Amino acid sequence: MIGIAVLGAGRIGKIHAANVAANPKAKLVAIADPFADAVNPLAERLGTEAMSDCMAAIERPDVDAVVIGTPTDTHVSLLLHAVKLGKAVLCEKPIDLDMAKSEEAAAEVERQNGRVMLAFNRRFDSTFAEMRKAIDAGRIGDVRQVIISSRDPGMPPESYVKTSGGIFRDMTIHDLDIARWLLGEEPVTVTAVGSRLIDPSLRQYDDYDTAMVILQTASGRQAHINNCREAVYGYDQRIEVFGATGMLVQDNLRPTTMRVWTAEATDAREPLLNFFLERYTQAYRAELDAFVDALSDDTEMPTTVRDGVKALRLAECAVESVRTGRAVTV
Amino acid sequence: MIGIAVLGAGRIGKIHAANVAANPKAKLVAIADPFADAVNPLAERLGTEAMSDCMAAIERPDVDAVVIGTPTDTHVSLLLHAVKLGKAVLCEKPIDLDMAKSEEAAAEVERQNGRVMLAFNRRFDSTFAEMRKAIDAGRIGDVRQVIISSRDPGMPPESYVKTSGGIFRDMTIHDLDIARWLLGEEPVTVTAVGSRLIDPSLRQYDDYDTAMVILQTASGRQAHINNCREAVYGYDQRIEVFGATGMLVQDNLRPTTMRVWTAEATDAREPLLNFFLERYTQAYRAELDAFVDALSDDTEMPTTVRDGVKALRLAECAVESVRTGRAVTV
Amino acid sequence: MIGIAVLGAGRIGKIHAANVAANPKAKLVAIADPFADAVNPLAERLGTEAMSDCMAAIERPDVDAVVIGTPTDTHVSLLLHAVKLGKAVLCEKPIDLDMAKSEEAAAEVERQNGRVMLAFNRRFDSTFAEMRKAIDAGRIGDVRQVIISSRDPGMPPESYVKTSGGIFRDMTIHDLDIARWLLGEEPVTVTAVGSRLIDPSLRQYDDYDTAMVILQTASGRQAHINNCREAVYGYDQRIEVFGATGMLVQDNLRPTTMRVWTAEATDAREPLLNFFLERYTQAYRAELDAFVDALSDDTEMPTTVRDGVKALRLAECAVESVRTGRAVTV
Amino acid sequence: MIGIAVLGAGRIGKIHAANVAANPKAKLVAIADPFADAVNPLAERLGTEAMSDCMAAIERPDVDAVVIGTPTDTHVSLLLHAVKLGKAVLCEKPIDLDMAKSEEAAAEVERQNGRVMLAFNRRFDSTFAEMRKAIDAGRIGDVRQVIISSRDPGMPPESYVKTSGGIFRDMTIHDLDIARWLLGEEPVTVTAVGSRLIDPSLRQYDDYDTAMVILQTASGRQAHINNCREAVYGYDQRIEVFGATGMLVQDNLRPTTMRVWTAEATDAREPLLNFFLERYTQAYRAELDAFVDALSDDTEMPTTVRDGVKALRLAECAVESVRTGRAVTV
């Protein structure tokens, strides 16, 4: 059994804690969060110990690994502390909003041969995983174009926008990781445009609500991402991978397979799953299980801090491309 | 060039006349209908001669073939007159509502080696034809079950209901023909139920608005048909053919491929095509072309009066099954 | 906490036991099965006690409720023993293959006001439940026709066929329950046909591999069921409910939303989920949770032994209809 | 009746000639083409006069309008000759591959108030037209993003590539026109990337086989286009228009609605329609009819030479963007 402490008892910490508790190879040793109102009921419900100090949780001798789901600005220090003590880490994205700090953290982890997995949950969703598997199996030949449509159900609150790092670092970054992963080659140029079609006041934060990106790899493979902070029909997550001998298309996941026919419309499906927590429930579980498997089998981490740095680097390039109107070399 | 006269300038006559005019191997010699107000403008628009007497049209020396689109009770006399004169015939369904009279007509046509095609238009629809072709090509192995969903957009007027022969002879008959054709074997038993869920007053005509049928062939192949006189979402025409190594499914044809996503529903398609004239436009054209091809190539008629008799016989069995609560042997 | 013992450690017992263990309001007190090789590893894995005697498990004072997943011929005695002791029961279908014995068991449970839920798992599947909810909300008006396509992936072994009670009692029965439930009215007549298209040797067991059924209610609502023991493309579960103001259609559930385009075919989906255990994983979980909720909230059982008797009665009628070629009155 | 001469008896001229012949308000007066082998059988089949001299055809007193389907380098001279004589024109795209010459032609047409329609056939396809209508009806609110996937079934022959003007002027130009039309605002910046993933030898023509484009309008609306010269699954034409209150999605048109289920794949559709002549058959017909209607009703031309110039200008910007790696201002 692998002893795991979950750091952070907020929205994402709750999910990780429940998934650790449900994993037969892991033992949820503790949940740590300075906010007692969050951590105490969660720990009680899952039958584990509540702690207020994340550093202390890392240091416990019965803790083999930690899951970091705390606010972004604490990630690097928690992560490096765990690595220094030889503990494995599953860390939420992003490593940090600052590129240089992220780079340094990644370099330090690599220097210490740290066992750190970055939580790119989408890669573990059954459909995403099946697409990657189908590509690897040669079912569509060499990848030529990846098209990602990714839209949130509604604008985040202004308090969030202020500290989010902007649409490219906060939202597009997930799609940039998936684009890298599905292209099978590193992008070498990034072109992006941003618009304020929903909230013009985003100008004060140099931010956008609607964006498009093009990536190109050295061999010429191309990826396109379109994002919008608000889609009235719900959280929209679709992907198309076009290759030399075929194409894979991923539709949205829905709560049921029911279709409705009325005098107004035929063959209509119900609204989409609300947001990422509902859409990627299975993915979060599979991600945690993959982390535990990598530890128990002593195999490579399926995603690394380096992946996080690379996705952030692409987001930085997108920001620069919007600013300069140029294709930015990665 | 094959000289063709169209008999009947009503709804279906108009379609046949236009299709004859558009066929490069045929010449539309005349349109005949006792109602001058119907036939004159139609003939003028298509640049052909208007006649009031259908028998006279058949007898014209420049007429090689006739298309019969007149009221049902005139079909047999026109048909047999044409056959006697050695003219080919494309005749609308049904031959006659009376089983004995239909049998006699078919026997007479066969005695005289008459060249008569019965207008089972659906068989010529591109999707129906593709399904039959896929079965013939062995793509789904031996057929096991055929399921036909066939619903009209709305109740016909009472005046029509009175003389229609009832839902089984008027509406189900089309599906019975398709079931025979897709099963690839003759049904030997017919079981049916009928309900009055829309209009209880149909009881006075011994008629129903909602029906289900099961057919079984000698080897045990099965077909199910469900009908309703009213579907609020439009004219519904779907088929499933399940076989030993696969299944073919036919969806409704629609005017566009557009899908609509809103806050209320996602992936919704537009309403269906209004009714059979719109749904089977291409099929009527292909049917006429097949008739002309059979004449110009001197090949077998793709559908015969005997097919009409057999479909009517199945409809008769369905009526009897509803009345007796028994599986009726054909 | 409700103390629950699971009786039976076979395929279905394993699922129930895991679902009890995962339910936060229940405690898995014991698993009982005479086969030590089945029950011991399962009990160990789930951290509970293994027992060899089902009756003894029922009698434990810490057992408030039992889940019966043993062979069919043991259901009635276990069920009645539990009811006599005032224990609640979730019992697998069927109650018994014998109609009279099932009736007696149901009457006895009702006499004793027993708390017994019959395990009609499909009703708890999210899509099935959403369909029933949509009907109740009036989204399609009064139900007119229900069409159920339900096919197994492959023939069961002969050993199973011998004791299964035949396709109508073993396979169609699930669809008969769903038809009753979706029609919203009791069927009053049953018509059925059976064929041996896969295995002619089924004749020795008076059994069939391919079947079609029509049900009709007193007001005239109609349901059709088509079944086949073998579908090369997998476990096929589709439903259509056609009503006065709309229609609901349920497609198969699949492991991913991926579609594949190649030179041979476009927009193709992957094979279906293997069989009922995979297709209805979520339904089994929701069924167990509904049982526990009914106990903890002291509300009515969502399905009852009476439902089981009614479904079995419809299956008996279908058998008789095939034999006599008549519509059988329920 | 409007007298029309069709200039050019090649692939596209044949289609236009048949559509003129089928239009009840038009008379096909002549078909002109210097290649007797092409023009003579076509004229004979359609019952009209064959001519060898396009200029002479324009000058005929019984010609009110001409349809230009000749090689691109003859478009401008034929077009301007017709306009000078007061004849209406339906001209195939592009006006000319040279931007300056196209601009001059457009200016000349406008100076003379010429009645010239440029043949942007896709706008007349029933699904494209329904999308524009749905946007105009406010069904999805203000447009935010347009995504166009447009791929050809296979590489054109080298002889064609040499003179085509390159992928952006030859292929992307159709999508650029549709993007302008669906955005409802003029793009102000163009960003593009090009790759040689199929045929590296395209480098000698400064051409590409795979391309992506982003357009942005003054208010910030965005469009993305992805193109490839070769899609193994056929001619791929899909569009998504995402707006403030909904989204419209256009799937490919197919010859039938049949879906195939086998042990390998389920719900598969047949291959796509072969190429643009098959995919846009109905659109070519509707385009010609719209031209004739505009003439007979004396209304505005639905598309103009100016539209052609604007699409070509966007293609030029795309070429420049690929070359410079910059967003190019239109």
Automatic annotation (TrEMBL), chains A, B, C, D:
EC numbers on record: 1.1.1.18
Taxonomic superkingdom: Bacteria
Gene3D superfamilies in alphabetical order: Dihydrodipicolinate Reductase, domain 2, NAD(P)-binding Rossmann-like Domain
Domain GFO/IDH/MocA-like oxidoreductase: 128-248
Signal peptide stretch: none
Family assignment from sequence similarity: Belongs to the Gfo/Idh/MocA family.
Name of the protein in its database record: Inositol 2-dehydrogenase
Species: Paracoccus sediminis
Biological classification of the source: Bacteria, Pseudomonadati, Pseudomonadota, Alphaproteobacteria, Rhodobacterales
Primary gene name: iolG
